[in-house]
Amino acid sequence: MMILVDDAGGIFPAINHSPWNGLTLADFVMPFFLFIVGVSLALTYKKLPSRVVSTRKAISRAVKLLALGIFLQGGFFHGINDLTYGVDIMQIRWMGILQRIAVAYLLAALCEIWLKGDDTVNSGKSLLRKYRYQWAVALFLTSLYLCLLYGLYVPDWQYRIPTEPSLPSKIVSVKCGVRADTGPGCNAVGMIDRKIFGIQHLYRRPVYARMQECSINSPEHGPLPPDAPSWCQAPFDPEGLLSSVMAIVTCLIGLHYGHIIVHFKDHRVRILHWMIPTSCLVVLGFALDVMGMHINKVLYTFSYTCVTAGAAGILFAGIYLMVDVCGFSRITTVMKWIGMHALMIYILVACNVLPVVLQGVYWGHPRNNILKLIGIGT
């Protein structure tokens, strides 16, 4: 799905990421992936031969995924059509999709390894009691996120816009001096990333550049309107530190759905225990959006967490009903193969490894490559 929205999002804006507030098809991909990571962790650590060994393996996997993410998404491949590569360490992007998954996976795995009670599970209440410490972590992370997002003071700040090599870069000032702002220019999510990573290490093509205020071709990229706000060309990381806190919560919600598989064997009981929290999450998420806590993927707001986790629960229960209960498994064969090799497919296609290989064989000029020969690209 991520490959689809990356390649076709420019043609069909309805499936591309929302420029700021709102929800589109592309905005479901990240939380769905985090949700299923949580589900799988419950099955992986159903029986623990050794907590120490399991912890060591979880840390090792997370570090490998983190390093892979920094290499692939830190800016190493930046000129595919010209076959240029390499990254300036002074400007490398530290966060990204794979890095966020690594962080969420590690925290959820540690919770599953160390924060499980000895209670016997025979009902919904006993299930919550057994994993009460994990829910306490989720509550703490949510409270921390809300306190920082709505409580931190965001001062005025500046950034540089590159110009011609012979000319000095242009300095642009963004006026803030506010708290609890969830707009593109003055939110606490961006401020924390600028303070900790430095603005030169953030994503250079923020999604809000497609907003009506920043593009005359909105919801696509385009020239700036005459009265464009000062923040329109500022770097902003959609996988920043503070927003990743709620990504961990999504993973913990998926962990709960996996616990239901582990402890309940009856199909009806499983679906019932899935649909109750699913319904609550969806209703709560949309209610919060109506009350002003907007659904926003870039900030990973609490309402966004609720709606997308609830939607993941609906899809998960639906597929379970179709495959495990009704027995329609043949139509999922291709999806199963893709799911078992999701990381490799993502690296090859979405992270430009396959395009580099295909475009690396050319004649005369890098643009005269295999892709052009078969009519793909320019």
Content of β-strand:
5-15%
What gross morphology would you assign?
A: globular
Please state the average pLDDT score.
88
Can you list the strand order of the major beta sheet? 1-2
Major β-sheet, in short? 2 strands, antiparallel
Rg, Å, rounded: 22 Å
Provide the structure class: mainly alpha
Succession of helices and strands: HHHEEHHHEEEEHHHHHHHEEH
Low-confidence stretches: none
Number of strands: 8
The amount of helix comes to: 40-55%
Give the N-to-C terminal Cα separation: 24 Å
What is the count of DSSP helices, taking H or I runs of 4+ residues?
14
Number of structural units classed as domains:
1
Explain what you see.
It is a single chain. It contains 14 helices and 8 strands. A hairpin with a 4-residue loop joins strand 1 and strand 2 (84-85). The chain has one domain (1-327). The chain has helices at residues 2-8, 29-44, 51-73, 97-114, 124-130, 132-151, 188-196, 241-263, 267-290, 302-325, 333-340, 342-350, 353-359, 370-373, and strands at residues 77-79, 84-85, 153-154, 157-161, 170-174, 178-179, 362-363, 365-369. Helix 2 runs parallel beside helix 4 (97-114) and helix 2 (29-44) crosses helix 10. It has 378 residues and is mostly helical. The protein is 53% helix and 7% strand. The strands form 4 sheets. It has a two-stranded antiparallel ribbon. Strands 3-6 form a two-stranded antiparallel sheet. The chain crosses the membrane at residues 28-46, 58-77, 97-115, 135-153, 241-262, 274-295, 301-323, 343-363. This is Heparan-alpha-glucosaminide N-acetyltransferase. Keywords: Membrane, Transferase, Transmembrane, Transmembrane helix. GO terms for molecular function: transferase activity.
